[in-house]
Amino acid sequence: ASATSRAPASRCARGGYGSAARTLPRHGQASTSKFDAEERAFFFASTTMQLGSGTDALFWEDRWIGGRSVREIAPLLYACIPKRRRKLRTVADGLADNRWARDIQGTVGIHEIGQCLQLWHRIAGTTLSAEPDCLIWRWSANGVYSAKSAYTATFAGSTTCAAWKLTWKHWAPPRIRFFHWLAHLDRCWTADRLARRGLQHPARCPLCDQA
C-alpha cells in the first residue's frame, strides 16, 4: 500500500474513528465531519448497518440492504433524491406506507423506474425490531472498530518488498545506513532542496562545479 492509501486509516485511528464507529447519533451515521472525502469514503466502505428499529439508520445513505446502500444498488434513482431528504429520511420512516417513494423528484426515465422497481423488490420483506440500529465494522471478527484493524485494512491487496534490507540489513555503519535512508526519501539537504526552501546554498556544486 502506498503512503497516501495508508494515511486515511492512520489519521482516523488517531483522530476519532473509534468513537465514531462505536456511537450512532440520531438520524445518521457516526459524525465524520472532521475527516476529508477520502477518509469518509474509507469509513463508508468499512461499515455496514445492522438494522434494528430503523429509527437511526438513514434510508438513502446507510448500507442497510444486505450490506449495501441505495446509492450502490440504484445510483440513478439515488440521484433523483434531494440532498436534504437523503440526510433526514430514516429507514423506519421510509418503510412506513412506502414514504421513501415520495422523495423521488426531478426527471424520472425508464432506467430510474427500473431501479425503483428493483429497490422496491429488495426491501419488500424488510422487518424491524425493537433493538437499536448498529454500525458493523467489517475489518474485525466481532464487528467492533479498532485502530489496529483500520490500519491493517489499508494493506489489503498490497505486496511486501524486501528492498528495505538493502538499507537496514547491511554491514555498513549505522550512520551510513541512516544517510542512505534519507537519500532514498530525498530528504538530504542538497543545494536544490535548500534553494526550494529559500535557504542559503552554494550557487554551484563544490564537487562538479555545475549549477
TrEMBL record:
Highest taxon, organism lineage: Eukaryota
Residue ranges constituting the Reverse transcriptase zinc-binding domain according to the UniProt record: 145-210
InterPro entries on file: RVT-Znf
Region of interest called Disordered, as start-end residue ranges on this chain: 1-30
Protein name: Reverse transcriptase zinc-binding domain-containing protein
Organism of provenance: Aegilops tauschii subsp. strangulata
